[in-house]
Structure formats: structure tokens, C-alpha cells
UniProtKB/TrEMBL annotation, chains A, B:
Belongs to the CofC family. GO terms for molecular function: GTP binding; phospholactate guanylyltransferase activity. Keywords: GTP-binding, Nucleotide-binding, Nucleotidyltransferase, Transferase. This is 2-phospho-L-lactate guanylyltransferase. The keyword GTP-binding applies. It is an enzyme of class 2 (transferase). Homodimer. It catalyses: (2S)-2-phospholactate + GTP + H(+) = (2S)-lactyl-2-diphospho-5'-guanosine + diphosphate. It comes from Natrarchaeobaculum sulfurireducens. Guanylyltransferase that catalyzes the activation of (2S)-2-phospholactate (2-PL) as (2S)-lactyl-2-diphospho-5'-guanosine, via the condensation of 2-PL with GTP. It is involved in the biosynthesis of coenzyme F420, a hydride carrier cofactor. GO terms for biological process: F420-0 metabolic process. Its EC number is 2.7.7.68. Pathway: Cofactor biosynthesis; coenzyme F420 biosynthesis. InterPro entries: CofC, Nucleotide-diphossugar_trans.
């Protein structure tokens, strides 16, 4: 099974701009990428990072220790992923997003071992956070409510399709409120990076929030 | 195993007040309660609804067809639940929140079959959405970041503790943004009720939102 991890190297995580500078967003995005790749390696796979730009050149710290090959493909996400999906029966390709900071080997194993032509780990808000494709006609479309689209596309091409019920894989880190989950449940580089940047839990009634203090906002 | 479903009968779902009238909030809350109880019954258990008031008297539609016994306990949630937790070795009590509109028998079975003294299904934002307790000294504290508190309390009383990785059980329906998940993944009374009230998916780039149209806002 090939495992592909798409990564937007140049302007990552723009929806975190209210709480993180561009360089910080890049640092956090690369920490999450490292956590995802590390969890994948622990499952025994050799992931390939599909990056929109060279990770050495792009804005942000280098990733010399990333345990994965990096392939640069500057096409839009949907196109770049579709170019790597199976074209013949018997091939399997998994696509795992780079911002699943809570991904664990156990959660990923559940994804990989589910028995269907198309296995989807839905993200909150209708996204597709991770995907296993074993059907040569299935293609992705990441625009809009991609979860619903992918279920529909699977049906249209005659591929069996199941969803994986995982909180960890449903949690993509896009918005400031998502950082809470990294601080609550993460134990990798992303959590450590957020703590270094001064983020902490703000505990009140209702859901927990994040606050930031002490961290120098670096440009 | 006893299964308890706490339910705030009188002023349910106040954080939905920007999109639903009081009577509508009560209707949606009772639809979610019905979905949760139905999923529990499908797992072969006989849940007890622990309601803050009689469901016949409280503001909102009656629930004559609810397949569960209803016990009224007007104490605060933490106190009411603690009064029902195991006091002797060998007892097991599960506590499942009434607003887990995506709960399925499969997800609940995973919760019930996990092997530990305390099994927690964390909610988004650090809550405790469902819980199985098999230790006579464990007690709950639902204030603040209850997930972290429950992990700590289990450790303090010497109880083994595991978390269940379930998107469905992590999704409590508290805020307008949560309604998206009901429309995307729900197939019970809660989803049908929201559709009747005019809610639909608003599909754009990024996460899917909800919009409301056609529904008459009833008081």
C-alpha cells in the first residue's frame, strides 16, 4: 500500500492567522506533518509527503529529520492526489492529511484494515481527513463537502465504501478552536510546539478554550 | 450493566439560542434523547433517563414513546450521576449524554466492551460524552475540562482508564456549528427534526456550515 500525505508547504494554515504569525503557522504545520508521518511509520508503512513546494526552500524551518520521502507537486490538491490513485485492480493508495495532529498508529491501523474499496475517515464539517482507495475508477474531489462527494463518487463507480469512526482522525487542525484538542490529546511535536509558543488550556464552564501567554510572537 | 442517560429537561441546549426558539430547542433535545435511547436499546441494554424534571410536565413535547424508564432527579448533573455510580466491586454503570445525536449501536458497543475500570469517550473541547465505570471509588466531576479531571480521578483511586476513539461519541450537539454533523451523519429523529425546522447544509470552501430557511420559527 502506498501512503501519500499531501502538504501545503508555502502558505499553510491560513485560518490560524488570528493566533499565529506566518512563520509560526509554518512551524506548527511542519510539527503536525512530522507527527502524522511518525505515526504512519509506526504502522509499518513508508509514507510519501506530496508537498506543494520543496520543504527546504519554502517559508519555514527545514524538515531534515522527517522519516519520509518528499515529492513536490504544485498542482491543486485534488489533481495531485488523483494523479496517484490506483489505476489497476489490486493497487491500494491511502491519502492522509498532514494536519491530523492526533493521529495514532492504532487509529491509522483501523483505517488501513477496514474492508472496502473506499474507506473514509470523515473530518468535522464534512471534510475527508483520510482515505484508502482500492478501486481503479474512484477519484477524489476535495472541494466543498468532500465527505458527501466521496461517498457519492464511490457509489457512482460501483465501489464499496465505509466510514471509520475515529475522533482522532476526524480532528484536523484548521482553526484556533482546534488547538484545544492538540493540547488535550496530543503528545507529539505539535503539542510541544504549541506549548513552546505559549499556548495553554483555559478551563471554564462548557468547552475548554486555548489562551496564549508568554510566547513571543515571532515574525 | 446499568445505563444512565442524564437529560436537562427544562432549559435544554441554551447555546443553540441564536438559531432555535426555546420550544424548538426542547424539541431538538428530545429528538436527540430519543436517538440516543434507541441506539442504547439496540445494544440490548435498558437505559434509564435521569431527567431534571418530569418529561410530561416540562416545557416541550411529551415523550410517550421513549423506550426507557424516566427517573426525575433535580440535583446538579455531577451529584445526580455520582449517586448512581458503583459502590461495590462487580457493579458496572454507564453514563451516556443525551445529546450524542450521532451515537450508533456499533459505537456504543465499542464503549461498553472496552476493558478498563473507567472507559471514557471524550467530547470535543475536553468534555466527557460517555463513560463506563466499574470501580467503586470513581466519582465524576463534570465541571470544566471533565475529560482531564476524570483521567486524574481514575488515577487517584487506582482505577485503570482508557479512552474510546469515536468521532460519533465525541460529537455532542451544543452549538450551532455542531448541527452540521447531525445533518451530515445523522439518520434518526434529530436529523429529521432539524430538516423539518428548515436547516440544511451550506456548502462552500472549507468546512460545511448550516443555514436555515423555510422553517417557521415557532415560539
Amino acid at each position: 500500500m502506498q501512503v501519500v500525505v499531501p502538504f501545503a508547504a508555502e502558505t499553510p494554515k491560513t485560518r490560524l492567522e488570528s493566533v499565529l504569525s506566518p512563520v509560526e503557522r509554518s512551524t506548527v504545520a511542519r510539527a503536525m506533518l512530522t507527527d502524522v508521518v511518525s505515526a504512519l511509520v509506526e504502522t509499518g508503512h513508508e509514507p510519501t509527503v506530496l508537498s506543494t513546494a520543496s520543504l527546504a526552500d519554502a517559508n519555514g524551518p527545514g524538515l531534515s529529520s522527517l522519516p519520509a520521502a518528499v515529492t513536490v507537486d504544485d498542482r491543486p490538491l485534488t489533481e495531485a492526489v488523483n494523479a496517484r490513485l490506483p489505476t489497476t485492480v489490486g493497487e491500494t493508495v491511502a491519502v492522509v492529511m498532514a494536519d491530523l495532529a492526533l493521529a495514532t498508529p492504532t487509529a491509522l491501523e483501523r483505517l488501513f484494515s477496514a474492508d472496502a474499496d473506499v474507506v473514509i475517515a470523515p473530518g468535522r464539517g464534512g471534510g475527508t481527513n483520510a482515505l484508502v482507495v482500492r478501486h481503479p475508477s474512484f477519484r477524489v474531489d476535495y472541494h466543498g463537502a468532500s465527505y458527501l462527494d466521496h461517498v457519492r463518487i464511490a457509489r457512482e463507480v460501483g465501489a464499496s465504501c465505509v466510514s471509520i469512526d475515529s475522533f482522532r482522525l476526524s480532528t484536523d487542525i484548521d482553526e484556533p478552536g482546534d488547538l484545544v484538542e492538540v493540547l488535550l490529546h496530543g503528545d507529539g511535536q505539535a503539542a510541544a510546539t504549541l506549548e513552546e509558543l505559549g499556548f495553554g488550556l483555559e478551563i471554564d464552564e462548557g468547552r475548554v478554550a486555548v489562551s496564549r501567554s508568554g510566547g513571543v510572537r515571532r515574525q
